[in-house]
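pinned: reference chain
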Amino acid sequence: MTKICTILLLLFSFWPTTAFAQATDAPETIDFVLDWVPNTNHTGIFVAEELGYFEEAGVAVNVQRPPQGSVTELIGLGNAPFGISFQDTMAHRLAGGLPITAVATILEHNTSGIISAEAANIQEPTDLAGHSYGTWNDPIEQGMLRYIIESEGGNFSDIQLIPNQADNSVVGLATEQFDSAWVYYAWDGFLADSLDVPTNFFYFRDYAEELDFYSPVIIANNDYLKANPEQAKAVIQAIKKGYQYAMEHPEEAADILLKHAPELEDQRDMVHASQAWISEQYASDPSQWGHIDEARWNAFYQWLWDKDLVEADLTQESHFTNEFLGD
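pinned: its structure tokens
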């Protein structure tokens, strides 16, 4: 672990070293690191920034685009107090002792699943037999795919695994690099529509309730949370207000995202379509945005443990909290 942490510290040595040091000493600016290029998963954060919710809460938040490398590890190493991760991505880092906690879920349910070229006629997991799948070569990814295929009576070995080296999985489908891939529907589903790439899609959660994990989630550094609980609460509740606005005003929220990510302007129609859809996915009850259910959280980590996909039983400790969300 010590060797790993040393390597990671070197990896992230370019990151401003004052980011977390400021956070532990009543910082003037609190860094929040996105997981990917701006998209509709992030809209509530930009709404909070644009409409002054951070300022109203008495905090100044600097929303940062992700550096190269793992944002999850960056947060755990204390180079920034807040960031975005995923429950599956967190698993190996938590098993290795990385000090991070999920403090809110951005989406109520797992909206990821398998997208496929319409011509392949893949309607359900067993239909993947005889077709190619563009894989990230992640054991959890392949474990989930194997699980839903075999649960439905299929054979995982009937799939041709191909390294997913496409800039985007939809492009990989369009250029016939592979027939199917794992994507998040809110972005890639609408991207496929905007590019006139005919596709089919099914959710993991429809075939295994234990795969209805939380993704994406807002994470924070444990030392930061311990030293700055009131500040953390102010940040998270301002972000919650941003997502609640996006739920009630998807059109205006999409325009705010576009203002903060002008590179998306040529995809304006797709952004608005994605926002209209995802605004209904953030939470079924806006007052409960961000809330993580313990049973669902642990069901996924118990599944990982049962399938030997993680090095520790993560259900023995709590790695999330709802205490910063407020009423």
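why pinned: Strands lie at 30-33, 61-64, 82-85, 100-105, 112-117, 132-135, 160-163, 180-184, 199-203, 217-221. The chain has 14 helices and ten strands.
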